[in-house]
């Protein structure tokens, strides 16, 4: 496993994201279990996306080489983060987990998500659980700590931008990636753009 990097707090200057961060912080302080917490965050993110907001161009810009995650908010204690995740046309992630809970809402474009059963033992091929497409304004609970393996990619002819809310500083958190055919596990850290 890789060592966790130092957490660098980030505060968004986008009012809708700053408000979302305050709400997530309040929800976490209530001590809700992950299922109740992610349901509440999902409801809030749906509301924020439906009301509309504009992110600065530099927080939605694709990278020509690989997908990128821009930190919109990182709690000083690392208890949660909000990211703008951007995949250019043809880009995707390896099969991976998050090691925490997460909620994803699509800001623009189409994201294709393929889910897998979380392995219970190492070195066993992964079992697929299906594929979904998520369009602008749609929100999903992408993961809980006990159910957390998927692969995502851009599904259209324009970049996809997602607003990701995680129960940790996702840019510093060591996570697992998987070879879906062999079940081999490798640890990585996404790192912020």
Automatic annotation (TrEMBL):
CDD domains: cupin_CDO (cd10548). SUPFAM superfamilies: RmlC-like cupins (SSF51182). It comes from the Bacteria. InterPro entries: RmlC-like_jellyroll (IPR014710), RmlC_Cupin_sf (IPR011051). This is Cysteine dioxygenase. It comes from Nocardioides zeicaulis.
């Amino acid at each position: 496993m890789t060592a966790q990097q130092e957490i660098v707090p980030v505060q968004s200057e986008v009012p809708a994201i700053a408000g979302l961060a305050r709400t997530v912080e309040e929800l976490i302080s209530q001590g809700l279990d992950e299922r109740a917490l992610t349901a509440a965050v999902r409801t809030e993110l749906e509301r924020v996306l439906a009301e509309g907001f504009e992110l600065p161009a530099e927080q939605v810009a694709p990278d020509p080489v690989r997908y990128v995650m821009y930190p919109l908010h990182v709690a000083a204690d690392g208890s949660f983060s909000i990211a703008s995740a951007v995949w250019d046309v043809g880009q995707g992630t390896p099969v991976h987990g998050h090691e925490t809970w997460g909620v994803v809402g699509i800001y623009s474009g189409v994201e294709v998500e393929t889910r897998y059963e979380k392995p219970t033992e190492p070195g066993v091929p992964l079992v697929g659980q299906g594929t979904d497409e998520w369009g602008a304004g749609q929100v999903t609970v992408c993961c809980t700590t006990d159910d957390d393996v998927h692969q995502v990619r851009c599904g259209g002819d324009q970049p996809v931008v997602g607003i990701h809310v995680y129960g940790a500083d996702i840019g510093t958190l060591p996570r697992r990636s998987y070879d879906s055919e062999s079940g081999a596990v490798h640890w990585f850290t996404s790192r912020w753009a």
